[in-house]
Write a structure and sequence with these properties.
Layout (H helix, E strand, L loop, with lengths): L1 H9 L6 H33 L2 H12 L1 H12 L4 H18 L3 H19 L6 H41 L1 H17 L4 H8 L3 H21 L1 H15 L5 H6 L5 H17 L19 H13 L5 H29 L12
Helix pairs in contact: 2-3, 2-4, 2-9, 2-14, 4-5, 4-6, 5-6, 5-7, 6-7, 6-9, 7-8, 7-10, 8-9, 8-10, 8-13, 10-11, 10-13, 10-15, 13-15
Amino acid sequence: MERVKAFLKRKDILFSATRYGVDAMGAMAQGLFASLLIGTIIQTIGQQTGLGFLAEAGGYAMAVAGPAMAASIGWALHAPPLVLFSLIAVGSAANTLGGAGGPLAVYIIAILACECGKLVSRETKVDILVTPAVTVLVGVGAAALCAPAIGRAASLVGSAIMWATELQPFLMGIAVSVLVGVALTLPISSAAICAALGLTGLAGGAAVAGCCAQMVGFAVLSFRENGIGGLVSQGLGTSMLQMPNILKNPRVWLPPTLAAAVTGPIATCVFGLEMNGPAISSGMGTCGLVGPIGVYTGWVESGAAPTGLDWLGLALVCFVLPGVLSWAFGLVLRRLGWIRDGDLTLAA
């Protein structure tokens, strides 16, 4: 047993929730961002401006989402070069065979293929043949056997959430907004979760509301401590920067979370805000304005001309209400002494 542990340690194979649930999932979201998401944005700009080159460039980026995700996961798992490059084929197979649940299939299968490839890496004199062969055959074989089932399962879960949101927009608006928003601030990837489940439509709109509530909420709530720099880094970057402060005083998480509980049902019941762009956009919030841009690309792709009410709803749900509500809830908690000066100061 000790020999096995020593071998796994030498191969840098660590079975841990942090490596697989945080590092790998976070990297997968970055791979999705660098392919499907940015490709969709560029393509939309090209289509709206009539610039064919941009539309074509966006299409190329979108086409390599599977390989980009798999390679990103391999990077997070410290894959050797031959394993990392072989994961490109694995990602393509898993994403294609996984259908609507392709991102989840890529996530699971890329981890399996990567770790198997690492096991044999540099163990033979013909490493240049053995390592890519094992990585590709394990990955593509697993994709052929499991990806369709994984894809269907992810699609069913996502469809159930979207169906429930259509059926009970108020309650599900609260639940989806709060849960996805909390996931965005935690050191896991809300974007990857939304992409894996294919969370779009009305449920996607609630997810956008929750993510925006966390990011804009923390940015406004902590303005007195962090100023403009904190406003930008949290409002356009990530609310995850507040995790050290949340661990010290969990009560600082209440204002943006309560704001999410309010904006979620407003998004679903009042404005009917839907995410019909890429599912990953549902879990991005105001990071690079990806969430609102995703709603806009959904309008474009559906051929629907947004009304003044649509624009008002987008502005209120994504920017105005998260800031106002979080500030108001925060003011109450500061007066109660639950949040003290300095509790929201970001680390240098």
